[in-house]
């Protein structure tokens, strides 16, 4: 399901320009779970795709004006209906973690794959999101020597809170 470049098949691709090469000889051994919704707690729109492709209109919502300048991306997004969208090949470095560290290693973007769940810190994720997530995690673990599956809040404590208290870690393996 994950090809040699790190594209999931089948999967809708919306390629982000906000990617670059991982450092040479990087072993991808971490998956970072996030949540995102744009506008916050509004689901189903095109805001996330617009943000990750630098097309967010700052005039469309006050929150968009705050974040439209950001150059960010993630490898994957899982929408509320379970749809999987890929923005970057796993072989490339997506810009999802920001300032981060884990067990003494800095810059987690270098060696991680980012998965965004459409959601927020204040309500549960959907059943189909967990189903898609587990299918994706299983495929990624077959392709890469994943050792750590962590929340954004764990690698950027005090700065990030996602995936938040409603993410059920016992639902994934
Ligand atoms: Zn995050």
TrEMBL record:
Molecular function (GO) terms listed?
N-acetylmuramoyl-L-alanine amidase activity
Q: List the InterPro entries.
A: Amidase/PGRP_sf, Amidase_domain, NAMLAA_amidase_2
Q: Where does the UniProt annotation locate this protein?
A: Cytoplasm
Listed under catalytic activity are: Hydrolyzes the link between N-acetylmuramoyl residues and L-amino acid residues in certain cell-wall glycopeptides
The cofactor(s) it depends on are: Zn(2+)
Please verify whether the record's keywords include Hydrolase: yes
Key words of the record: Cell wall biogenesis/degradation, Cytoplasm, Hydrolase, Metal-binding, Zinc
Top class in the EC scheme: hydrolase
Q: Which family does it belong to?
A: Belongs to the N-acetylmuramoyl-L-alanine amidase 2 family.
PANTHER family named in the record: 1,6-ANHYDRO-N-ACETYLMURAMYL-L-ALANINE AMIDASE AMPD, N-ACETYLMURAMOYL-L-ALANINE AMIDASE AMID
State what protein this is by name. 1,6-anhydro-N-acetylmuramyl-L-alanine amidase AmpD
Q: Which gene encodes it?
A: ampD
């Amino acid at each position: 399901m994950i090809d040699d470049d790190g594209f999931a098949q089948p999967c809708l691709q919306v390629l982000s320009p906000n990617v670059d090469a991982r450092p040479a000889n990087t072993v991808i051994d971490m998956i970072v779970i996030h949540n995102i919704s744009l506008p916050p707690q509004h689901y189903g729109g095109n805001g996330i795709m617009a943000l990750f492709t630098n097309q967010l209109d700052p005039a469309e919502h006050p929150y968009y004006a705050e974040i439209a300048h950001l150059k960010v991306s993630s490898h994957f997004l899982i929408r509320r209906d379970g749809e999987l969208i890929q923005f970057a090949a796993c072989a490339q470095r997506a810009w999802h973690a920001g300032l981060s560290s884990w067990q003494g290693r800095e810059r987690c973007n270098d060696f991680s794959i980012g998965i965004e769940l459409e959601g927020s810190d204040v309500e549960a994720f959907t059943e189909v999101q967990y189903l898609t997530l587990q299918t994706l995690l299983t495929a990624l673990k077959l392709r890469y020597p994943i050792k750590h599956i962590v929340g954004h809040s764990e690698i950027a404590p005090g700065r990030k809170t996602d995936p938040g208290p409603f993410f059920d870690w016992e639902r994934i393996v």
